[in-house]
Design brief:
Blueprint lengths: L3 E5 L3 H13 L3 E5 L2 H7 L5 E5 L7 H10 L6 E5 L4 H9 L4 E4 L4 H16 L9 E4 L2 E4 L4 E4 L2 E3 L3 H11 L8 H9 L9 H14 L9 E4 L3 E4 L7
Parallel strand pairs: 1-2, 1-3, 3-4, 4-5
Antiparallel strand pairs: 6-7, 7-8, 8-9, 10-11
Helix pairs in contact: 6-7, 6-8
Length: 233
């Protein structure tokens, strides 16, 4: 069998349809109907499909708890709501992608495959195994980021975003390019604010002062760049 996907969904009909679809695509399916069971199964999964409405909690809180426990698997959130604020909250608590119900199973599968490629895809042999930028060390082979010998725990999307910017040092990258290169062409939101949310989350983790960033610099009206001349020792 292929990658292990954890489906955290209390709606029996929705969960059954998802399970059938993913098993047909050669996934190994783990299933939970509560946040409590989802927390227990999450470490065994390669990727997590998480519903916002759960009987004992909500998906936002569960996502926050999983990230606080340093679980880095990609998380795709599902909800019946189509509010922009819910999408932003989902991304801010650590989700990598977001879909609203009703959805097409083929699109869910496509999004899941895109997230898996982004998180676990093989690195080009031309990429440098370790990158040093200021006090940051980016270990591409092991997908780890260190600062002053202390590991910084990033989600798979945050790591991909940081790595892409680091591979274009001091070059301004616009938001649409970041969506295409980090999220992939399968990413259907088309909302460039998604990039801003992830940049803000990334700054909270790697910057000494996220409000005055040394590394990820905003170029007004154009996009972002990773500055190699960081003032951080």
């Amino acid at each position: 069998m292929g990658n292990k996907i954890l489906i955290v969904e209390d709606n029996e009909a929705v969960a059954l349809g998802l399970r059938f679809g993913f098993e047909k695509e050669d996934f190994t399916v783990l299933q939970a109907t509560t946040a409590k069971d989802g927390r227990k199964l999450a470490p065994r999964a390669d990727i997590i499909l998480l519903d916002v409405r759960l009987p004992d909690s909500d998906g936002f809180e569960l996502c926050r708890q999983l990230r606080a426990a340093n679980l880095r698997q990609p998380i795709l959130m599902l909800t019946a709501k189509d509010d922009l604020i819910d999408k932003i909250i989902g991304l801010e608590v650590g989700a990598d992608d977001y879909m609203t119900k009703p959805f097409e199973l083929r699109e869910v599968v496509a999004r899941i495959r895109a997230l898996l490629r982004r998180a676990y895809g093989t690195l080009s042999t031309q990429e440098t195994a370790v990158m040093h930028i200021g006090s940051l060390i980016i270990d591409l082979s092991n997908q780890r980021v260190m600062r002053n010998e202390e590991e910084i725990h990033l989600t798979s999307t945050e790591f991909k975003l940081l790595t892409y910017l680091a591979q274009q040092p001091n070059r301004i990258v616009d938001r649409q390019t970041l969506i295409e290169q980090v999220w992939g062409y399968e990413y259907y939101f088309g909302d460039q604010r998604t990039v801003d949310v992830h940049v803000r989350n990334l700054r909270q983790k790697i910057e000494i002062n996220p409000h005055i960033p040394d590394y990820i610099v905003t170029v007004r009206g154009q996009g972002y760049k990773l500055a190699t001349e960081s003032s951080v020792p």
